[in-house]
Amino acid sequence: MNFDQKYMQMALAEARKAYQRAEVPIGAVVVCDDRVVGRGFNLREQTQDPTSHAEIIALKEAAKEQASWRLEDCQLYVTLEPCPMCAGAILQSRIKRLVYAAADPKAGAVKSLYQLLGDDRFNHQVEVVSGVMEAEAAQLLKDFFRELR
After folding, report:
1. Looking at the domain that runs over 3-141, which CATH code has it been given?
2. Residue 32 is assigned to a ligand binding site
3. 74 is known to lie in a ligand binding site
């Protein structure tokens, strides 16, 4: 198992926590210097807060842990391609590298609908790796929505 798979497994574990709470199963972890400094999973239904996405929760925890909003030496692992809100938060936090599992053709703002993290008009760009453990993440989402219907 390589570095990216190790941390994506942790993000998938976070996604399973969301699944158990009847939340869309998306999980995220922030890693700095080979150490997890932030974790999150979707909590929109529980909190009734539209910003309670896995990435936002993980980034907030990481910023608190690092005592800085600048997460320049950190990587974010997330099970689904980030939406525009989360892509914006990734840019604002200066995350160095994003690794995500499954593409989101309906709301993805990294490669699917928009390419916000690579847009050179912003003052920060993010290295992006996609498709890490994609099948596992996609299956978790399919299972969740199948049960929901």
Report:
1. 3.40.140.10
2. no
3. no
